[in-house]
Structures are given as structure tokens and as C-alpha cells.
Amino acid sequence: MNKSKAQREFVVVTLIALISIALIIAVYATLLGTFTGGDVGVVTLTGAIYYSVDNSTGWATTLGGIANGSAWYARFNVTSGGYSGAVDITWWLQKGGSNMTPAVEQPTSHSLSGGVEAFYASSDGTQGSNYNWGQNATAADNYRVMMRVYTA
Fold first, then answer.
1. Which of 83, 92, 96, 120 has the fewest CB atoms inside 10 Å of its own CB, making it the most exposed?
2. For 8, phi and psi rounded to 5 degrees?
């Protein structure tokens, strides 16, 4: 009988110890608070690529009737601003809907104002050194300029 009583006491003491540990853990893990961060406004860049045969006037989303090897230029018109800061841009030429081989690319580093603006396919985004894509369009086909803009 003593053995059974000792076993019961052991079980009771063990349960009391487990309950005590659980209460300590529960007290330790008491919720101290819930916090909400401020809003994060995500912006994007909206616009279109425009072309011109003289890099100055007549900017349009398409060109037609251009002779092989004749000059033509591209720029991007930002129509809905939002992002302000430095960007890295990769422009590239496609022929017949596929990338040219070897690749014809023009990298650009530019700083966006956050508003409506235009930037060009030149190393610094300015008009004066805009890339002449026509020098690579030497066979009859449909060509187009593509671009990607990344935060710098």
C-alpha cells in the first residue's frame, strides 16, 4: 500500500510541477501588444515608346515607310508619374518580333522626376546623344524598340 501511495504522490507532484511550468510559460508568453505599420504606397511607371525620324519632331508610337538604314530614334514618354529617383534602363531592338542576334542594346542611366516627362535611348537619357536605331535596321522587316526600367 505504501508503494501505491508513493506512486500517487509522485504523479500529483509531477502534475503540479507540469502545471507550474505551463503557467510560467503562459505568463512569459503574454501578449504585450499588436502594432500596425504605416501605409506603403507602391508606384509604377506608365507610358509608351515613341519614334521620330529626326530625333526632334513628329514623335509617334509607330513609323512606316522608312528606308533601310535610315535614321530613326526612340524615347519614352512617361504619362503617369509617381516614381522619383535614379533608374537604370535597358533598351533593345527587335526584328520581326524577336530580339536581334547579336543583341542591339542601349543602356541608360537617368533620374526620374516623379512627374510626366520624356527620356531618350541615350547613355544619360538626354535627347542630344539619342541612339540611332536605324543604323541596325538594314533589312526589310518590322522593327521595334523594347525597354526595361529598374530602380538604380
1. 96
2. -65, -40
Q: Among all chains, which residue has been given the C-alpha cell 533601310?
A: 68
Residues 6+ apart with CB under 8 A from 85: 111, 112, 151, 152
3-state DSSP call for residue 16? helix
Q: Are strands 73-80 and 46-52 parallel, antiparallel or unpaired?
A: antiparallel
Separation between Cα atoms, residue 133 and residue 63, nearest integer Å = 12
Burial class (CB in 10 A: 0-12, 13-18, 19+), 55: buried
Whether 30 is in a domain gets the answer no
Q: Which residue has the cell 525597354?
A: 147
| Residue 85 domain-assigned (yes or no) | yes
In this structure, the chain runs to a length of 152
Does a structural domain hold residue 112? Answer: yes
Q: What does the pLDDT look like over 22-55, one tens digit per residue?
A: 777 666 666 778 889 898 888 888 999 999 999 9
The β-bridge relationship of strands 84-95 and 98-99 is antiparallel
pTM above 0.85, yes or no: no
